[in-house]
# Entry
Amino acid sequence: MNKSNVVSRGMLFLLFSKAYFLVSGYIIYIVLTRLLGPNLFGIYGVVIGLVSTISMVFIGGINQATSKFISEQSSCASSIKKSSFELQAFMGTAAFLLFFFFSPVIAGLFNDKSLAVYFRITAPIILFYSFYGVFVGYTNGTKQFKKQALLEVAYCTIKTILISILVFFGFSLVGAFVGFIIATLLIFVISIILFGVTDKGPGFPKLKILKFQVWIMLQTLIINLILNIDLFLLKALTPVQDTANFYAGIYNAALTIARIPYLAVIPLSYVIFPFISEATHKQDAFLTRRYIVKCMRYSAIFLTLFVVLISTNAQGIIELLYSEDYAAGAMSLSIASIGMMFFSLLVITTTFISGSGLPKVSIAITGGIFMVDFILNYLFIPVWGTVGAAAATTISMGLGFLVSAVYVKGRFKVFLPFYSFLKIVVLAGILFILSLFMKAGGFLLILKLVLLSIGYVIVLLALKEITLVTRIPFLMLKE
# Structure
């Protein structure tokens, strides 16, 4: 099987796992929004948002570092895995202890000292999740995408069941947090059983992994801060605690929907990273450019569809999923969905850059955008609240994507073909108008979204932007 077919199969496996992740995640959100209410759901969003930001730094760093070195030196895969695990044992433990003991200080930054106890309860997630990243990187680097997908499916299943049961039986926020912790512990144990960490061969240099990992960790930190800074500042800058929790709740509900395209595009970045790394390592410019074009076409097609449908049906989607209690977040959702489209494209383009061995460039771009995002949110939130947060994020993400796109085009001499871009933009405009004029609510809204999506795909088939083959067509990097 050639590399392009491996990419295609990998995309399908990871697409399935990400779809499963989305479905299971929204089962959790539906349970929590309805059983906890906006105020407690706001606290949940802030706490898990911060813990996840820290966890993703370790997962993203060791994941990409492990994947990169294994894809370049497959004969050392077992040794690289062991060295990565030992690195995480030190760094994950240190992060867990620091977060646990400094929780009161962190809670003070959010203008809510009551958060300290929740931060301490959720601190173990950081430790267990950091080890999980090693095994994700190992399966990704060895191109065992099926096993990588199965790991995620297992984790999502365990987490959904535990959180839903504990909250349903009255354990409220603490139950949700405990369910999360147990799920991360179990997936860590399962990963150890499946893949182990022993290696009889010579150890792979930890310093080599660390030097690359540090830059990816910094980039991941910035990306996740960008993803959550609007919610964090909304909580911190709203003076009345109950109002702050309510705003955080309705805005977090809006964000969970706005992030659907981003979460669905993530498998593409996981799949393409080792192939971009390998192609640039071998100085194969043709293959690198082909990967970039296919990724951008797939991303643009998918993101455009979802953003148009979400932004034009925001209130109906919120009420259908979470109830009318969260309808106040409709305008924020319409705006934030556009921002998340730009953010998704920013993640894809920085994956090209980092995969080619230039993580410092990705950090420079995302770091600058984070500063812009922070400043705009700081200025907009006190004046416009949740709508201001959404607007600040959208402006920042649009600027970030523009900068990264210009860099990718300049370095690799290729991007999204102009005629593909033109077709997608025109079709998006038509879809936008149709969606606005087709009024629907409740389950009729689902039918409307399905029909518009089918029409979108049919037109793209007619325009030959996608083709019908034996696999899902526009997910293939080889046509």
Summary: The two ends are 15 Å apart (CA to CA). DSSP finds 14 helices and no strands in the chain.
